Amino acid sequence: MLVLGIGLLVYSLRAVTDICHKDTSLGWRILRSLIVFFIMGYLGVFYYLCDRDDIATADIIFCVIMLFGGGFVVLVTRLSLLSLLKVEKLVISERNIALHDTLTGLPNRKYLIDSLSHQVSKGQPFSLLLIDLNRFKQVNDALGHYYGDLLLIEVGKSMQDHLPRTAQLFRLGGDEFAVIDTQVDPSSIITTINTIHLALENAFSIETYDLLVGASVGVSHYPSQASEIGQLLQQADIAMYSSKRLSAPFCVYDQSLNSNAAEKVNISALLKQAIELQEFELWYQPIVTMNNQQFYGVEALIRWPRPDGSYFCPSLFIPIAEQTTLINQISTWVMQQVAKDMVYFDSLGLALCIHINLSAMDLHDTQLVKKVSSLIKNNHSSQKVMFEITESAMMIDAEQAKQTMNYIARLGGKFSIDDFGTGFSSLEMLRDLPIQQIKIDRSFIKNIHHQDADLAIVKSVIYLAKHLACSVVAEGIEHQDTSNLIHSLGCDFAQGYFFGKPMPKSELGQILQLPLSSIS
């Protein structure tokens, strides 16, 4: 019994030693010392009994107690070790969950920051790639988040399988991913980027759908371009958005991109001031009826004058405004100014359809319906209002756009699809949304005499619009022969420099009172 008790104590000593390796608390080290002391005591008792000729009953009882004592120590130490191992496994699991994306199983943003910190601490060069998926938003809006999530899982798997061993993939959230590549030479980075695009080259089969996505990639290098994590992330982000804006496969950060970012911040600040001080001007471009060559209406176009007398280009400041709620304030100002100008057009005896552009952000403005209601209900003039929206604006949140447009349509508002053919709208949207007009983008008009494909597209759009009971406007008419061709194809209205450039309302008032033949 004593030998067995000694064996149990030795076994428990191993368990306590394992615990001491995991937990350096003083109590466990004391327990280990006590177990060693007990083993020595058990050995002493064993030798004492071996020297005796007879064993008394009391000695047997004492040995039984010592055996059970050894068993008790084993039980306590083994259970303590098992509990500690369970806690350790739970901590590892929790840490793994905290550092990995629950949807794709890829390392997450926190893991990326930790990895970047580790790479920076080593002082070895590496590259950071930020990846934003193209066309994923359309998939999510059209099919729902369920299919969007399944697509993200497959995208993550495909990129993970294609990346070289030097690169590690992370998911930052939404449709954004990141890659840390320990290579920095241009050829190796291009190889990594090519593998990313190769991974997204084929359509992903998600249940009954075959879905295609692309990627915009921004690259920044450590330490040649950035020595801090925040700066590295910012540079890669700027490069990624530049890649998306230019529709380029990738973009490597350089100082000029940073200058553009600084310029955008400056313009954003100036925009706020311009809105407060109402520095904008509203110009109008004529729209002509093709059948009788009379003025049908005008498109309201915002202009922002510079102190030197020139003007900021709308293509420069409108996208910046659309990234914030500033675009909502600008659209509010436009509608208020249009309401004032309607009185002026009335005084000239004109009856026009005034086209007002709305952005994607406007369709998500909870106050838009109220603003439009105020414009339409307070309009006691002979002027009408048509709201122009782009295909891409409707696609950002198709359900929200449909709901907002239906509200406005019930108030008496009408809608025209601007830049038709350049976005991703479907025939289903044309069928379900309250659309009264389609504007053919100028990119299809300018080469209509030389490109058979453009001519075919224009013919198809006009045919489609007629059967959907929509009128058609051709944008970008600059020559008489283009006007004649558009007229012969059955287009209802035309707009372009041939009929008149955008101009202030005072100049427009003089133009609209003249015969069209004397202008063109």
Automatic annotation (TrEMBL):
Q: Which residues cross the membrane?
A: 30-49, 61-85
The record's listing under SUPFAM superfamilies reads: EAL domain-like, Nucleotide cyclase
Keyword RNA-binding attached? no
> Which residue intervals define the domain GGDEF in the entry?
124-255
| InterPro entries, per the entry | Cyclic-di-GMP_PDE-like, EAL_dom, EAL_sf, GGDEF_dom, Nucleotide_cyclase, Rev_trsase/Diguanyl_cyclase
Name the Gene3D superfamilies on file. 3.30.70.270, EAL domain
Which keywords belong to this entry? Membrane, Transmembrane, Transmembrane helix
Stretches assigned to the EAL domain: 264-516
Q: What is this protein called?
A: GGDEF-domain containing protein
Q: Which organism is it from?
A: Shewanella litoralis
What taxonomic ancestry is recorded?
Bacteria, Pseudomonadati, Pseudomonadota, Gammaproteobacteria, Alteromonadales
